[in-house]
Amino acid sequence: MQLHLENPIFPKADIRILMTFVAGKNDELGLKADSHLSQISAILPLVRKADIMCKKFTPDELNKMDHKTKDDVIYQMQDRLDRLEHNYENLVEQIRLANQQRFGRHTEKLDDIAGQLSFFNEAEANYDGTAKEPTVEEVIDSSRKVPRKPKKKGQREEDLKDFPQEVILHDIPEQELNEAFGEENWKSMPDEIFWQLRFEPAKWTAEKHIIKVYVGTDGAHQDEFLRGDHPETMFRGSIATPSLEAAIINAKYVNSNPLDRISRDFQANGLNLSKQTMSNWTVWTAERYLLPVCDLMRKRQLEAHVNQSDETPVDVIHDGRPAGSKSYMWVHITGELSPVPPIIVYEYQKTRHSDHPKAYYKDFDGVLVTDGLEQYHKLERDLAGVKNANCMAHARRHFANAIKAIGKSNPEAVEASVAYKALVRIGAIYDLEGALKGLTPEERLNERQASIKPLVEEFFAWLRKIQADRSVLPKSETAKGINYCLNQEAYLKVFLSDGEVPIDNLASERALRTFTIGRKNWMTINTVRGADASAIIYSVTETARANGLNVYYYMKHLLTELTRVVRADGSIDEKELEPLMPWSKDLPAECYKRRK
Description:
alpha/beta, six-stranded mixed β-sheet, two-stranded antiparallel ribbon
C-alpha cells in the first residue's frame, strides 16, 4: 500500500497519527496499546481513498471500469479541483497582500486602497438635487483664472513673536553716506526687515550649593551648631536635578531616543553622563516619585463610564523565562468621547492572559471598548459591572486587505467585489459618525439611533445574506471579514445604545503609538523592573501630552514639587497630588508654554 502524503484530500491529522504509530511515538498522542487496531482501521479507508485519487488510470482500465466507480472517480476529481482552485486563489491573495504590506501604504481609506474607483461613483457621489442650475455668467466667470491671494503681511513676525528676540542693526556709517551722496544730501527710508531663527544647543549650569555652618563660642549655647537649610534633592549624593531628569525623560519617552543616543548627545556638549547612570535615575524617579501619580491616574480613569484598552508585544530580556518569550504592554484610557479629562495608563504584564485585564478592571463599572480578543469578552462574563464593546475599525481591516490583494490595476474587479461593497457601507457609517463628535452624549445617541442604526442593521443583514449564498472563498480575507463581523455583531452594536461609546478603538492604538515608535529604536527592555518603570513614565508623559502640556516643563515642575512633598517612606497625601496632576487647573503657565 502506497501512502500519498501530499494528497490534499487526505486529512493531515490522520497522517500524523499513522506516522506516529510507525515511529512508535505512542506517548506523544496519549494512546493505549489496545487502541492501535481501532485507530489504524479507521485510517485505512482514507488511505485507500487517497490512493484512488492519485492513481493515474490507463485507457484500458477506464474502459473496464463500471459506471459507479467511474462516477466516484469523477466526483473525487471535481472535489479535488475545487480545493486546488480555492487554495490557488487564497495563495494569490496572500502573496498580493504580503507584497502590499511590505511595499505599499499602510492605510484603510477606501480612496487610497482602491485607486481611481472614485470615477465609477462620481455621479452618485456628487449628486445634489437641491443645487441650483448655474447661469451662463457664473459658468464663464468660474472658468477665468482666479488671481492668487496676496500673501498676508507680518505672518512671520506673528509666528515668531513668542520667541526671545534680539535686534541686530545693519547700518551704514554717516561718513560713508556723505561720501556716496554728498554731505546732507541723503535721508533715511523705511527699513528693510527680515527674520531668522537661531538655535543654541542645550547648556548646563553646575550648581555649587554652599550650606553655611555656625557654632556658638560663648554663653548658654557655646559649642552648639547651626546650619543653613539643606535643599531637597532627588537622590542623596546625586547631581540629578528635576530639570535634568525631565530632559532625559522627554528625550527617551517623548522623542523615542535610546539612552545611548542621549548619552552621546550629552558628551558632544561636554557632559559625560553614562546611559547606566541615566537608567538608574529613570527607574528611581518612576518608583519613588511617579508611582503615586500613576496610581491616582488609574483611580480616576476607572471612575469614567467608558474605558478603552489595547496591548502590544514587547521583549524583556531578563524576565525569568526562555529567550524570545513575548511580554505585553497594555494601555488603558478614558473613553475618547467621555466628558472627562483624558487619562492614559500603561501596564506591563508577562502574558496576554485574561487574568491581567480582569484584575485591572475588577472594580470598574461601565463600558470597555476593545478589539475582538476573547480575553476581553471573558471580562464581560466574569465581571458584573463590565460591558464589552468592539472596534468597527478592526471589522473593516479584512475587507481592506482583500481590496489591497486585488490591487489598483483591476478597478472593475475591485468595484464588483464583496469587500469593496462592505467598505462602502462601513464608510457611510463612519461619515455620519464623524459629524457627531461635537455633540453631547445624549445628542449623539439620538442622532445615532435616527441615522446610523438603520445603516448598521442593513450592513449586518447584507453580511448574513452573503454568508448564506456561499459565494465567497471560505479562507479568503473577505470571508474572514464577514465571519469577524457576524461573530462580533452584538459587541459592534454597543455604540448605538450609548452616546459615550466610540465607534472604534483607534484612540487606544494612538495611545500606544509613542511606545511602539520607541520600541523600534531601543528594541528591548532589559528587566521587568525597567518595564514597570517605563509603564509608569509613559503613563505620566502620554497623559500630559493628551492634556495639552509641554512634557519637559510639566515633568520639571512635577519633580520639583514632588521632591518637597514625598515623604521618606515614599508616601504622599492625595490632596497634595491633585494640584500636580496633568489635568489640574492649578499648574503654572510654564507647563503649557512652547519650548523656545
